[in-house]
Amino acid sequence: MIEEVTYNKKYKAKDYFNIAQYRSDSWNNLKLVANHFSKNNFELSAPDTFTERIASSFVALKTIEHYFAYPGVKYIESLEEMYKKGQYAAFTHSISEVVRSLISESYRTNRGATETDEKRKKMLGDAKLLKPKKQNYFEVIVVDDLSDGEREKVRSKFEQLKADNDQFTYDVIFFSNLEDALIALLFNPNIQTAIIRSGINKKSPLDLTSIQSFIVGLEGIKLEETDNLDLGLNLGKIIKLLRPEIDLFYISDISVSQLSDSTLDCFNRVFYRTEDLQEIHLSVLHAVKERYKTPFFSALVDYSKKPTGVFHAMPISRGNSIFRSSWLEDFGNFYGKNIFLAETSATTGGLDSLLQPTGPLKKAQELASKAYGSLNTFFVTNGTSTANKIVLQALVRPEDLVLIDRDCHKSHHYGMVLSGSLPVYLDSYPVEEYSMYGAVPLSEIKHRLLKLQNAGRLSNVKMLLLTNCTFDGIVYNVQKVMHEILAIKPDMIFLWDEAWFAFAGFTPIYKQRTAMYSARMLQKRYKSEAYRKEFEENKKSENPVPMPDPDLVKIRVYATQSTHKTLSSLRQGSMIHIYDELFKRKVEDSFHEAYKTHTSTSPSYQILASLDAGRRQVMFEGYEMVEKSIEMAMVLRSKIVTHPRLKKYFDVLTVENNIPEEYRTSGIFEYYNAKDGWTRMEEAWANDEFVLDPTKINLYIGRTGVDGDTFKNKFLMDQFGIQINKTSRNSVLFMTNIGTTRSSVAYLISVLLKIANQLDEEREAMSEVQLKIVNKNIKSLTEDLPPLPDFSHFHSSFQAVPGVPGGNIREAYFLSYDETKCEFIKREDCREALESGREIVSASFVIPYPPGFPILVPGQVLSNEILEFFINLDVKEIHGYRDELGLRIFTKKALNRKKTATAMMGAGAMNRTATKFN
């Protein structure tokens, strides 16, 4: 009887979230089976069972490895041949070596170092030794209808052209059709280059049934030239959409005079079949080298190696004040010499000025612009809080109206104060059961905009400001929002706060909901003849729908990004990305003034270098690393929702929990359940008004009887060193990112199990009185939840136009500087004051953490709903409120005087307006 071990599990594609998981487990399953039967003697084991399992693994891996150069489909065939010939020891050992190489990823940087590579060289008949260590490895796809013999000639020629001293090395994968090439680009993150011939086939000759669940997204790919006979050109255009970082080369059969502009725009370079492969080889390496450049980081490294005399105002420069000190030795040893060697205030000598870059910093920002798909990109070294203020000050003036997400980051509210613009606050839909807000529905935005239009204030509206994605992972349908708003106001400026979404541009599903990608797609759409025809036909229809006028619409999109939050950058490293058709004509000067206003004249060169180096990373590894971070999030979700002990106390909030049904036309309600497995995201991310970013994992802890803040500090941090950013009354937020490892996910799961056991033990030891207290806490956290209030309104003294959205937050803010116009009131005394009919008007921002956004802003009237929420807050940190003093509010006398002055000014303005129209 065969011993039952883990290899008995049937590995089916539908049980996996992505191909990387399926591929990894398929190899591991083959290794487990081979090792077990090798130890127990192949001949004496149950041969039928063994053969079935081995055959099943071969079938899966033959399909998967078709899309990878290493180890590749030929290696699978060679393993299969070993097995058939009874070479079981070699068979087992070879599999173990491949698995070790794939898990450690040593095949990428340690070429020729493993025994498997040497065997692979012999098995595949490679004529040339594999390259030495420390070469950056990537893979190239050649899409051409070549015979097997022709493929081997091309492969051999490329091998001959490689040199041991090349900085980069590559392997080649051949395809004959568009479908296989696209699947490879989705599956294989090692691919950095595509060489495509004009005449290729469309469909794969392979049976793709076993991987169908992983390629459903390809069905939704649409191209304007779908009827174009040149599938090679079509493939290039699709790659530009899916993975724009890929270098594209085109092999043409037609004359240069017949090449279309779209072909020349799409590809790095066009070659002809008669040309030497050496030019293609050199072009491939050159293109990769160009992306690999880090102008500023490299300049800083070079500077740090130069001997210099330091006579400027930084004793720490070159480490002189550190390493010559008897009392700072530990500080210097902790950070090392390089950080101090690179510390300088110099802007010449190979370096550059952030405020007026002309050298390596300018080049670094241009490369970042290309990587993130913007027209202009600017580095920011003091966080996205500053980036937000720069954009607001550059684009809006006093009296301009800004439609703004009320629960956005506090920097935007302060930006309103600095710029003097008038905020029109938009309310997000509430998720009261979990004490959090969602995002602003499109209907709410359009309602406010149309209200302003009816009041004759549409011309004053300058900007729409929204958070994408929110702290809890709610992501807008960016193209839909901008399209429908531009139909009402074709010159609207959009500022998307993508502080938590910097990573999204490097994977196809996420990318379509980023600001820069959406701006590019809309610009392309509105400039097309197809759209103009659609627009004209719509105007003539009986019931025309609002559409942006192609003659009037302008794409003006800004995105602020906390690079350091989700990509590789030192803390406070951020970027401003711009896709504004009018930037050069209308904004450039004011933007640079605002940039200089808020940017230090002594920026951190280390932060700037990290932004430059991090950009290089995402251009080569962004696709893979982001996909892995999503995979880690999905693994964590599935483990928590299926583990019986964890389910007793914890739930992972699903799409359904976070997003009301009316905003989910796809019908998706969760990403995973034990019965049905994984739900594909593609349709929802393409069409729904809101989607949930799976890397934001809200863990519902209401049944523990412990509030979020206590759970974070008492359990996660103090006991286990688990760090998180956000909590609500009954949830804690975990996030995966490109630095999340499998071991960290495993550790978190083990920690949650320990906490569950601890809660069990504590409850077993409790008296009846203690249990009653716990049950009361559970009821408070699961049932007795305070309602989440909407924005109330500005006091009439601070309304721009009475009865019309828009408040003068700047005026209220600075009025509070006069202490004689302010007083304090305890929050528990506010109810009595409100019942007496008094209007309580805040003189300051009141920002509890969590949720981390203002529940009151200067000039805002305190409502009963806000008061109830305020009283029920059980967080310790509330900026703008001091327990010993209370809430800072305007005195009645100050408001009466302000109201009288406002009325007189308003009457004058109305008379001037009447005179103007008469």
UniProtKB/TrEMBL annotation:
Give this protein's Gene Ontology molecular function annotations: arginine decarboxylase activity; pyridoxal phosphate binding
| Annotated GO biological process | L-arginine catabolic process
- Orn/Lys/Arg decarboxylases family 1 pyridoxal-P attachment site domain spans which residues? 294-518, 556-742
> Which Pfam families has this protein been placed in?
OKR_DC_1
Q: Which InterPro entries does the entry mention?
A: Orn/lys/arg_de-COase, Orn/Lys/Arg_deCO2ase_major_dom, PyrdxlP-dep_Trfase, PyrdxlP-dep_Trfase_major, PyrdxlP-dep_Trfase_small
One Gene Ontology term, aspect cellular component: cytosol
Q: Which SUPFAM superfamilies match?
A: PLP-dependent transferases
The name on file for this protein is: Ornithine decarboxylase
What is the organism of origin for this protein?
Pedobacter endophyticus
Taxonomy, top ranks, is:
Bacteria, Pseudomonadati, Bacteroidota, Sphingobacteriia, Sphingobacteriales
